[in-house]
Design a protein that fits this description.
470 residues, alpha+beta, three-stranded antiparallel β-sheet, 20 helices, 11 strands
């Protein structure tokens, strides 16, 4: 109970004691005391308490402390708060989002410490936080807890977490701009000290911001501290740099180079075909089933996409699989997306099914043991295809550096072919706003062509002979 009923008594000297000077005071009906080695220390503490009372702070009867000190004492450390935040987000977060939260908090948390003396190695600390403190596990009774609380971690991990728990700042102290800047700067760098990608920085800073919002929700802080400092992440360059996107001729060469790599390349040929001819995401291709496909013997076919299987570590999924079964990206779970596909892809998929069959659940693409095709596997095939299909100068320049470039190449082809941006966005699974943001350069080119057509039509209207009957 808080009260203004506070009385201070004289400092009592008790000879023969290690701390002979005893400060005594009363809050309500409860007496309190604290002993010090010197009279100066005791008198200084009395002055602090008197200043709090004169500043119209109420005191807590049980502890004898001013309200501000009591609040600070009850405030969690940043480390405890970050663990609580990760656990709060876990149940409704996608597996990749869980991993992203852990990665972001692991980068920021070492900045919120009272000292760096004897701090464990940064890589050990990052691993301890990412894979143990901020990863959740359900106990036998269904309770969600930090992995570090459910399992016995290795000695170096345990030592790192013990050190951090001891030296972590209170949340109110972590809100200091000095510590916040250090955390934001840490999120801007890779482990090797080089600058992280702009999108990575934005993603991690968003997690940190949300963690502070949760601190406001729980009452640990009264305001959002990141809004009080002058710090901005680097400007995002959303537009795709088409110097690194293959043109139709280069894309065809790359696909042929994939197929020419023996059994492994032939098995993934249609996989890459889906990337280019249907602009599918790799996670959508991983979920593609025969029942989703309309593949006539001639002419155009259709894919009705229903879900995706993003690849993520088994520690972040509920079922322990290294992938997660989800609905289409940024869509409701049961939403579908129809993608007309040209005859060339129809033929590729028909040939793939005829040769390799499907998985037990109807999926077209599977690993040797029936699981999801791993990104490491198709990345190796793609890099070899680049080496075979491109010139050394194009390889060195980063042309088609990742297989995902085929998706950008497909959307670019659609736009240049005159497909309406709304339809191109629908087929690609983008919003129209996202399409315009990422493909602005190509769309500006198509707008110029549209302007010429409009101008030509207007000229024809002006020079057309008038109707004699008019």
């Amino acid at each position: 109970m808080l009260t203004f009923d506070v009385e201070f008594w004289s400092i009592r000297s008790r000879k023969g004691r290690r701390k002979p000077f005893e400060l005594r005071w009363r809050v309500g009906t409860q007496p309190h005391s604290k002993s010090y080695k010197t009279y100066t220390q005791a008198d200084g503490r009395r002055a602090e308490l008197l200043a709090a009372l004169q500043g119209r702070q109420q005191f807590d009867e049980e502890t004898g402390l001013p309200a501000a000190e009591l609040e600070a004492l009850n405030c969690p450390t940043w480390y405890d708060h970050a663990v609580a935040y990760a656990l709060m987000k876990w149940p409704k977060a996608a597996a990749k989002q869980r991993a992203n939260i852990a990665e972001s908090l692991a980068g920021a948390t070492p900045a919120f410490v009272s000292t760096r003396r004897a701090m464990p190695d940064s890589r050990v600390m990052r691993h301890a936080l990412h894979s143990w403190a901020f990863r959740a596990i359900r106990t036998s009774d269904g309770t969600l807890v930090s992995r570090a609380a459910a399992e016995e971690p290795p000695a170096d991990v345990a030592a790192a977490l013990t050190w951090l728990a001891k030296h972590s700042l209170r949340v109110t102290e972590a809100a200091n701009p000095v510590h916040l800047r250090a955390a934001l700067d840490a999120l801007s760098l890779k482990l090797d000290g080089t600058q992280a990608a702009e999108t990575t920085i934005h993603r991690k800073v968003m997690v940190l911001s949300n963690a502070w919002r949760y601190a406001m929700e729980t009452g640990a802080v009264a305001y959002h501290p990141m809004k009080r400092i002058d710090w901005s992440p680097p400007q995002l360059e959303d537009e795709i740099d088409f110097e690194y996107v293959p043109d139709p001729q280069q894309a065809e060469k790359l696909l042929k180079a994939v197929k020419g790599q023996g059994l492994r390349g032939e098995h993934l040929y249609a996989f890459f075909g889906c990337l280019y001819y249907a602009a599918m995401r790799p996670s959508e291709i991983a979920d593609l089933k025969e029942s989703h496909c309309t593949l006539p013997e001639s002419g155009w076919g259709e894919l009705v996409l229903r879900g995706n299987r993003p690849e993520v570590g088994s520690g972040w999924t509920d079922d322990g699989n290294p992938y997660e079964e989800r609905g289409l990206k940024r869509r409701a779970r049961r939403t579908t997306r129809s993608v007309p596909i040209p005859p060339v892809l129809v033929a590729m998929l028909r040939a793939h099914i005829a040769r390799y069959g499907t998985a037990s659940d109807g999926r077209l693409f599977q690993a040797a043991r029936g699981g999801r095709v791993r990104s490491t596997e198709y990345t190796e095939v793609w890099q070899e295809a680049r080496r075979l299909a491109l010139t050394p100068e194009e390889v060195a320049a980063g042309l088609a550096s990742v297989a995902y470039c085929l998706r950008a190449a497909a959307i670019m082809l659609w736009i240049l072919a005159g497909v309406h941006p709304v339809e191109a966005a629908r087929r690609a699974g983008h919003s129209v706003a996202v399409l315009y943001r990422f493909y602005a350069k190509i769309l500006r080119g198509s707008q110029a062509q549209a302007n010429k057509l409009i101008e030509q039509r207007l000229s024809e209207a002006v020079t057309a002979p008038s109707d004699p009957a008019g």
